[in-house]
Specification:
Strand content of chain A: 15-25%
Order of helices and strands of chain A: EHEHEHEHEHEHEHHEEEEEEHEHHE
Distance between the termini of chain A: 26 Å
Largest sheet of chain B: 8 strands, parallel, barrel
Structural class of chain B: alpha/beta
Number of strands of chain A: 15
Largest interface: A-B, 70 and 72 residues
Shape of chain B: globular
Strand order of the largest sheet of chain A: 1-2-3-4-5-6-7-14
Number of helices of chain A: 11
Number of strands of chain B: 12
Oligomer: heterodimer
Distance between the termini of chain B: 25 Å
Strand order of the largest sheet of chain B: 1-2-3-4-5-6-7-11
Helix content of chain A: 25-40%
Structural class of chain A: alpha/beta
Number of helices of chain B: 10
Shape of chain A: globular
């Protein structure tokens, strides 16, 4: 089982490579990828350096062009694919069917992965991408139970990559427009969710308020630690109660089910977080490398070491973790 | 230009669904999308019931279309979809790529709003697979649609969602069950208590979103009545309204009269405003935040 780690910058990429990633994934510095954050990502020269650095150390490089271009953006997105094809990358991660068709025809030898933004949650959907574009690997949305992941694996002719650690999307990726409803910019369209330029913090006597384009996302009491106002992770009022109505700030962590994922034939574990620091990437990569190696030696007796869990919780959103949808009770 | 009624997003009790469509049979909608698109646990109506409603509406001169689930995870959901796809009588609206995979080369179909068709190349692929109509994704804007219309494959109809709460997100989690501290597996069908969704407000009391099982809808109602003329000019073929428990017949009548040029927009606005004290939005169409209201009634 491979460990696929995020690279939002060259230093983060080096952290991932040095700490045991089997593959890294990155994107260009524009809206063609789903982590289009200020100061992140790679221009063409940097991407070239990233590929060279990684390949010299036996680490594969995946490049994500995983937003959905509108007609006015189509040419720019195709140009990004043309450039990606010159880099010697090991796979291109796409979400849009039109771009897949373009790539499969123009660059038939370029290996394609279906992005989590492609919303493929079942074997029939995956089969569409395999038949039409020769997709070799799919990244599953974070909405399936372990049993459902196992079922998909018995029925598809592609490798399956699942999320193993990082911030948790509670919605089906590629089918959530909450962010554009509030700000005009969504993961599908702009490669962002709850973008920072719309975030406003207000201090008041009752505490700190976080707003996204004017909408009150949360209020933090004095002394309470405040999180980034991702809009599905705020506290709202429903039926007279104020609570995390959609999801609390927490991170996904699959350490508890590593043996099951391995036995089911999952090809790769993906770490979320191209927006994270090199130190974060180093710590998470090192810990998961150790866990996966230990699990591979003897999956039957594997159980997560306390220090791994503690190390990962330190890095986790809300300093806590969940198995997410892999575990039925969570749903 | 035709008028359509999308699938009922909420969990209405069985008799309410039958009564609703009996009334719809006498209205001026041309196309009716039927079936459960949100949660596979909702089984007040069986497939045979939906076929019965489809037959009733077809007899009344409507085109009946069977809509698939949007989020398909379990094998049982795949099987149910297969029986929809192979129904042999009625066209199917595909709300997931799985449905398209099954329908390709088998029967003509409609691409629902939750399949991401953002550009001409994707639209061509869908037409090639057998789509005869597509519903524009909700977050797309006027300018994108104009460009998509120019390169539209021959024979492919375009449908635009013009009225109703916007379906914004889907999850494995049931937010209605969560609101009641119930596990999803033992939800007690609490969503049946909220025929128009469960309102989610900000802590300042602003209506923001609406909870409907595993789906999150907009709090405000999307309303493009002022754009009917522009859509006609662009060659849009079908305007879609979303079902709601109150005022549906008035909403249908209002849109139909505007489409026929028999009602002033200001009057139409006033009639629709009576149905929706919570307010309207139209931002997506104008290329801005979906929750914005760009077109003011006073304009």
């Amino acid at each position: 089982m491979e460990l696929v780690c995020p690279a939002g910058s060259l230093p983060a990429l080096k952290s991932a490579v040095e700490n045991g990633a089997d593959a890294v994934y990155l994107g260009f510095r524009d809206g063609t990828n789903a982590r289009n954050f200020p100061g992140l990502n790679f221009d063409l020269d940097e991407a070239r350096q990233a590929v060279k650095y990684s390949h010299q150390r036996g680490v594969r490089v995946f490049l994500a062009i995983n937003t959905y271009p509108r007609p006015s953006q189509w040419k720019k997105w195709c140009r990004a694919i043309d450039q990606a094809a010159t880099l010697g990358i090991d796979a291109l991660i796409l979400a849009d069917s039109g771009l897949m068709d373009y790539t499969a025809r123009a660059y038939p030898d370029l290996r394609l992965h279906l992005s989590v933004q492609g919303s493929a949650t079942n074997h029939e959907a995956i089969d569409y991408y395999v038949r039409h574009f020769g997709v070799r690997r799919v990244v599953l949305p974070r909405v399936l139970s372990l049993k459902q992941v196992q079922n998909v694996l018995t029925r598809v002719e592609a490798e399956v990559e699942v999320f193993g650690f990082g911030s948790l999307c509670v919605m089906v990726e590629g089918r959530c427009t909450l962010s554009s409803y509030v700000t005009g910019e969504s993961p599908n369209s702009s490669g962002v969710c709850s973008p920072a330029k719309y975030v406003k913090w207000e201090e008041s006597s009752i505490g700190r308020r976080s707003r996204l384009n004017g909408v009150l996302i949360d209020v933090y009491a004095p002394g309470e630690s405040a999180g980034y106002p991702t809009l599905c992770k705020g506290r709202f009022e429903v039926g007279g109660n104020i609570y995390y109505a959609m999801e609390e700030p927490t991170s996904l962590n699959v350490l508890d089910i590593l043996p099951e994922l391995m036995r089911a034939g999952v090809a790769a574990i993906k770490v979320e977080g191209r927006q994270r620091s090199p130190a974060y990437v180093a710590e998470v990569t090192r810990t998961l490398r150790e866990a996966i190696d230990s699990c591979a030696v003897d999956p039957e007796t594997f159980s997560p070491e306390v220090r791994w869990v503690e190390q990962l919780d330190k890095m986790a959103e809300g300093r806590t973790h969940t198995l997410g949808a892999y575990s039925r009770p969570w749903q | 230009m035709k008028l359509s009624l999308g699938p009922i997003p909420y969990y209405w009790e069985r008799q309410r669904v039958f009564d609703f469509y009996e009334r719809i049979a006498y209205t001026a909608v041309d196309i009716v999308y039927l079936g459960e698109t949100v949660c596979s646990k909702r089984r007040a109506l069986r497939l045979s019931d939906w076929f019965g409603i489809a037959r009733r509406l077809t007899d009344a001169g409507k085109e009946a279309v069977l809509s698939t689930l949007t989020l398909i995870e379990a094998e049982s959901e795949v099987s149910y979809m297969r029986s929809l796809v192979e129904n042999g009588h009625y066209p199917v609206e595909a709300n997931d790529m799985a449905a398209i995979n099954m329908l390709e080369g088998v029967a003509p179909f409609v691409i629902g709003p939750h399949v991401n068709v953002y550009n001409n190349r994707t639209l061509e692929l869908m037409a090639h697979a057998g789509a005869r109509r597509w519903v524009m994704p909700l977050e797309l804007d006027h300018d994108s649609l104009a460009a998509l219309q120019v390169g539209r494959p021959a024979g492919l109809e375009t449908e635009v969602f013009v009225y109703g709460r916007l379906p914004l997100a889907f999850s494995a989690r049931c937010f209605t069950a969560r609101a009641h501290n119930l596990p999803k597996d033992d939800c007690g069908f609490r969503c049946a208590d909220y025929p128009e969704g469960l309102l989610l407000r900000t802590r300042e009391g602003e209506s923001f979103l609406s909870i409907n099982g595993i789906e999150i809808l907009s709090g405000d109602t999307y309303n493009l009545i002022n754009e009917v003329g522009a859509m006609r000019t662009m060659g849009v073929d079908v305007l879609r309204l979303a079902p709601q428990p109150q005022g549906m017949l008035e909403i249908i009548e209002t849109f139909r009269r505007v489409m026929e040029g028999n009602l002033e927009l200001s009057t139409a606005d006033a009639i629709l405003a009576m149905q929706h004290p919570d307010g309207f939005c139209d931002g997506y169409w104008h290329g801005t935040a979906g929750m914005n209201r760009v077109h003011n009634v006073s304009q």
